[in-house]
Queue: 2 jobs
Job 1
Amino acid sequence: MFKSRDLIAYAQAAPLGLVLLCFLVAPIIMIVIVSFWGATEFSIYPAFQFDNYAFLFGSPVTYKVFLATFKYAFITWAFTLGIGFTVAYFLAFYVRTQAMQTVLFLLCTIPFLTSNIIRMISWIPFLGRNGIANQTLMSWGVIDAPLEWLLYSDFSVILAFVHLYTLFMVVPIFNTMMRIDTSLIEAAYDNGATALQTLWHVIVPLTKPGIMIGTIFVVTLVMGDFITVRFMSGSQKANVGRLISNDISLLQYPSAAATAVVLLCTVLLVIAVLLRFVNIRKEL
Amino acid sequence: MTKMRYSRRAVLKGGAAAAAASAFPAPMVWAQEIKDITLRQFGTGVSNLNDVATKVKEDLGFNLAMTALDSDSVTQRAATQPDSFDIADIEYWICKKVWPTGNLQAMDVSRIANFDKISPIFTTGKLTPDSTIAQGTAPSTVGFIPEPGATEFADEVTNWMTLIPTIYNADTLGIRPDLIGRPIDSWAELLNPEFKGKASILDISSIGIMDMAMVCEAMGEITYGDKGNMTPEEIDKTFAIFTEAKKAGQFRAFWKSFDESVNLMASGEVVIQSMWSPAITAVKSRGIDCVYQPLKEGYRSWGGGLGLSKSLTGMELDAAYEYINWYLSGWVGGYLMRQGYYSAVPQTSKDFMSENEWGYWYEGKAATGDIVSPTGDKLAAAGDVRDGGSYEDRMGAVACWNSVMDENQYMVRKWNEFIAS
């Protein structure tokens, strides 16, 4: 028997539960089901077979592409964390007035008012062989010939990722930093800690939940992306998202679903591991 | 007011009946109901032109609702949802895949007024009596069936046509002559180390593989039985050559959409790549020198046509025939030819083009004045000659038609490997 208090609590949670059930759980179940189906060239038929998974795990391309996906995620994570932490640190501890903090924080978000595809594509003319970057470097005499690796390379892919997703790191880290009791920092200084020691032994541990939330954002976004990799690598590199999008464009939905399920499991696994390190509930 | 309209309708009806009796047999009789008819056409973007729908309403009185999809979705829809469309605007290789499903009905050739004037490419397959039929899914090989209801194609011209050809062209490599500075005359140049980091092909497997095959054959590395229907060994060998080139940094990028190909070429990132005719025009319109280079090995060609859904009957079917006859009567042909494509019945298009336009686009003569696209952009100036020359020169040199292979799924997997390598 439910107590009436329980009942009210359940009723309050019901709308969200229902939305999640319809728009999150049900589609995922559908994807899992379809991943066992079979496909001909232009139709899919219900079945229960492991062909899609067998092909996926049997192909060296899969491992290569998953590896590339992890590589992008890891490098992007390292850069966004470095930049995001620095920006948040500056905002939280160097900017004195709260008004100024708000202004600067909003300034960070301004580029994000435009579509992220536009922000990504605008790198292309900038980095191109005859682009602004190469022309500037050449006019300065730094290089004699245009740098080819600026565009359509891993460099440009990661550059775009870092540009697109750093804010997702800044926000949660800034948020946690703002909650740090400044008396703790003063106490550290009073006890003779250097600035670096304070940073490492006081601020970083207290910011961990924010870092973790930012990490989850960045890792999931990068691992699920396909359009950035396609545009910035000139279609020459592949990550898991591109495998899925290729399958979909060829109407191989079951195979796309199987890849999506494997990707989903991988991402969940990564997040599970991350959550072992930090209890983010403390933050929420 | 009501009375007025009634009387006007009555007069129109009488007039229409009289006219029908004399000049036009069937169509005009149902001039009253025709306004309520809507034919649903779907197809790829190239020929799904809103101007055509507008003109149909104007000339024929009924509505044409157009839906543009990518070619994979088009195939799927034609194969699985016959009731969702009346007219399918599909490519010939799609027809090869879709016809056996029985979702389309053959057209009675005797009801097509201009059938005799349709280019022989689509009937006998031979532009001139001594031409050979190109490799791939040549339109003539899937253009006819022996009898209504048949799911096999006929080997010769019959009274039952599968698709009425609408639009077609011959594709080749696009180059930047200003950045290359020497003549290019072979597909093999795409993998010439001279253009390392400055070449591109398109990342659409079914077409990309054909361009690859043209290159490998031109290099003398592989001799194909049929480039349009490769064996697994041929596919493997082709990808081995291109994977090696990719790893050596031959390609700057691969493109998937029209505008990407234009930008790659216009920005100078790429100097030689597979390209489509309107993309060349788009590069030129920015004032950049770009040539649709004719190559000695010939062109890779494609073509589309209109097919009728099997669920079309009665008045709608009559309207569809009316629409097809109108399509071949010249206005659309002129419109398409002025974009750089070809019309299935070139002669009728002539009346809808100026002498200068006809000379430039069809006969390969130097333009005597500005050549302007149907949308008003200037495409060429006096003295310019179309790349590749006349209709006979271009369509007579087709080496291969777009096609779908028996080993398609294998090829697609290899393609994914190639991109990931």
Job 2
Amino acid sequence: MIIVREEKLVEKKEHPLIVSVSPHVRGEETVSRIMWSVNLALLPVFIMSVYYFGPRAVYVTGLCVLACVLSEYAFQKWLRRKVTISDGSAFLTGLLLGMNLPPGVPFYIPLVGSVVAIIITKQLFGGLGYTIFNPALIGRAFVLISFPKLMTIWYKPTSAFVGLDATTTATPLGILKEGGLGQLLEIFGDKMHLYEKLFLGNTAGSLGETSAIALLIGAGYLFYKRYITWHIPLSFLATVGVLAWIFGGKDIETGKLIFFAGDPLIHLLSGGLILGAFFMATDYVTVPTLRKGQIIFGVGCGLITMLIRLKGGFPEGVMFAILLMNCFSPLIDRQVRTKPFGAVGEKKK
Amino acid sequence: MSLHKKSSWELIKNGMFGENTIFRMAISLCPSIAVTNGMKNGVALGISVMFVQTMVNFTVSLLRNFIHPKIRIPIFMLIIAGYVTIIDLLMATYARPIYKEIGLYIQIIVAFASIFARAEVFANKNKVWPSVCDGFGMGVGFLMAMVVISFFRELLGRGELFGYSLISGNPLLIMVLPAGGFLAVGLLMGFFNWVDMKFYGGKGASGV
């Protein structure tokens, strides 16, 4: 009864002196505002991917976005749920999925990935806010495992890229895994050239992951708007950097492991690490909500990433790292929950 | 003595739909994921389970008055193991190629929850003919589930059925991997529950 009366009062807004229940101060941030801001933050990344991979980038990303939005619309219509395509979350999923695909994929890979991402990972679990795993990453994992050959053909960036006339090559991390640092330096010249190319994004890789500078600009915008905090990205990147420094060093001739001789910058700048750390591992829904838990989450992501990069079968492990840590989010949240002041601890049985 | 006053056909239908081992009870999921990456294996295991389930129910029901309640579990185990050995040796002799692939899972039938559960909750308390019907129905239900799951997994994952290639192009490789097994079982379970809710009011497709 009381609740009904409160609502009526709030609707009328005639009595400024009426005491109402909290929250009293409302921000202007809404879900759709945040989602569209993240989309905006991905704009520089998209521009760089068009610059390096030409019309093909528009084609792949556009297909992903279109398929994501359409499948969300169709599924919500079918289940007679409220259609929420205008909040930008499906758009964001499509954009992130597109940024995570290699430029030369045939048309059905973005379609399959989008349908899996939206319908299986997001809508079947209850829609936005109820997902266990990051939808875009599940979509990518699904297509990577389903079409392992097509998903690992990488192209050298050329702006006139249309798919057939481009040269294929391995990603920097792939070269590092197969041939070691020596071969990587042979291809790129010296270390400064390598860093420069990795930083600007002039290397083979997924559409949105190559250009570190564009990603950092986007991430800077999100930091400025305070939509993401430093906890996850910093702990993620720091763990990867430290582990790369300790375990990443190899003797060029013998291939034997040398401790504390690795090059953290190569590992930090290459692959999907920056994209993953700033845009995927900061997804509100699938990560721990408490700050302490977020740091644990980031460190865990870093550990698994480096484990896969250095010891696993895949050259890149950011995707699997984030997905695996997503499973642990509820567990982490439960572990780091703070005890209210003065609370009595549970009795030991 | 009989707890269930249903006709034989109702008992069989109950096993097939109302209490389908995999889609309704969600037990014995291990083989439904491990073996269903091809129709051939799925059907072979389904038929084996059908045979063992029917015969175990028959035997347990026959002996139900002689089995001391305190040692019934080991005795069920012995009966099941006996029939599993029969099917194991038969397959090893007459269906060598399939046996090489799914031999382990044939032996694991001994530990199937569905067979054990039916012996305990039904055959141990009912007369012989209803028990045989129940066991047969459960077995058919399991076989059906295996056929449906392996149909989708083989068709989508390899583009083949019974080893004959039907679809060219790039299949969804994930469907024949274990992850695809979970996906297929989950989606089909959801689908059958949806059908059940939509057309039978959530009572099970047999209307029981």
